[in-house]
What we know:
This protein is of the alpha+beta class. It folds into two domains: about 10-120, D-amino Acid Aminotransferase, Chain A, domain 1 (2-Layer Sandwich), CATH 3.30.470.10; about 135-285, D-amino Acid Aminotransferase, subunit A, domain 2 (D-amino Acid Aminotransferase, Chain A, domain 2, Alpha-Beta Barrel), CATH 3.20.10.10. The chain has eight helices and 16 strands. The strands form two sheets. Strands 8, 9, 10, 11, 12, 13, 14, 15 and 16 form a nine-stranded mixed β-sheet that branches. Strands 1, 2, 3, 4, 5, 6 and 7 form a seven-stranded antiparallel β-sheet that branches. Helix 2 (about 55-65) packs across helix 3. The longest helix is centred in the first third of the chain and has 15 residues, at about 75-90. The protein is globular and about 50 Å long. About 40% of the residues are buried. The model has no long low-confidence stretch (mean pLDDT about 95).
Amino acid sequence: MYYNNNTIIYYDGKMVKAVEAGTDLYSQTLHYGYGVFEGIRSYQTANGPRIFKPAEHYERLIRSCQLLNIPFSYTVDELTNITYDVLQQNNFTEAYIRPLVICPPNMSLHKPQSSTLVIAAWQWGSYLGEKLLRLKISPFCRPHPRSTFVEAKACGHYVNSTLACSEAKASGYDEALLLDHEGFLAEGPGANLFFEKDGKLLTPQRGNILAGITRITVMDICKELNIGVEEGKLTTDDLLKADSAFYCGTGAEISGIQSVDETVFPKNWNESLGKRIQESYMKLVREESFKNILSVA
Ligand code: PMP
């Protein structure tokens, strides 16, 4: 359950109880998926609960609004302060934070004239997923870059993600892996892909994927650890010949991948680059090391 009778959310300028907040049934967001959102995490650190990379997430939220022509006037600082307030009002330390920009009633297909911001959060402890994922290459491809702005985190894009994830699960796998419209590797329904080959990491280039904040964090960690990373147009064949692989995202953190379709990666996860990055990532989000990554960001 995401909320109870006492949960407080930020809704249109005020802190209100989640159970008392409602939305207009004629909202353009509800009917057409025309809205944008973010997924952020907070972690317990020696300095108390800290939101991980709030500026990067809120810059992306503002950019998503701009791409979709959704009027939105909050600044990154205002958004960050409100989010800390939501955490405090609910007494949350380790939480998942969901900002959502909702458009007003509009049954036409014209751009919205205003928007409403909601920031909800729920307790969500980080778990170090030791269970490795078994992926299925999805029959669904990621949206074509000329059918939408793929770098906007738009609500409607998640119809594609939900279809892909559900199809993979219904076929007995843990998660989907989506290709782009040209058949190159793209990403998971809610995470970016990295794989290891001969001591370095490879990841699909930007263009047909969501530019993940964790993806950049992984690259920053690689710089610190002297691990090479290459971005490019990568194929399923490249992936199937890899030594190991992982997904990364705010929710997924760093999740090791066991197999893709019937191909099992040969390298033991505990000896993979992904495992080293997973350990570094968990230290970083708890502000235990690599603090320079946070200060330069
Ligand atoms: N791709 C998709 C489609 C996603 O939904 C997410 C989660 N936001 C990611 C990648 C990873 O992005 P981030 O690291 O910013 O959470």
